[in-house]
Design a protein that fits this description.
Blueprint lengths: L1 E6 L12 H8 L5 E6 L4 E5 L4 H16 L5 E5 H9 L4 H7 L3 E5 L6 H8 L6 E6 L2 E6 L10 H8 L5 E4 L1
Antiparallel strand pairs: 1-3, 1-4, 2-3, 5-7, 5-8, 6-7
Length: 167
Amino acid sequence: MRYVALLRGVNVSGKNKLPMALLREALKATPFCDATTYIQSGNIVFNADLDITTCEQIIADLLKAEFDLNVPVIVREQSAIKDILKVNPFETRTIENSKFMSFGFFDKIPVTEKIDEVMSFSTEIETFKIVDDVMYFYCGVGFGKTKMTNAWFEKKLGVTSPHQSFL
């Protein structure tokens, strides 16, 4: 199975430094095959004959043991990510302004009441849609200016969101 692992908060503003070359080297000691990383994001693509939970635990343990990092890890099948991109509710906006569009995963499905509360913050220029454990976010003010950061969503929804990827 081909997987994508998303790590929260590595190589951001000089914190949780994780050199990708060292990470790739450390991954050679795992049961993963063909592991590659994506730029300095901490995203990992790999093959494994293991379930998602086991893959998440292996990566979390590796990060702690080799790099003294305790960061959230979410693993998804690569095909699931492709499917998520196909159903993007803001597709017409991404064609015009892809730099303002992202999607992210939560570690669990947020409680409906909390989603309803957070939706009250949605505007025409900063809007989002939560589908199960995935959030699509159109941020017309720009990601450097918004107050709706990963940490903001985590606090409001009571979830962990390791990563937002830009479309």
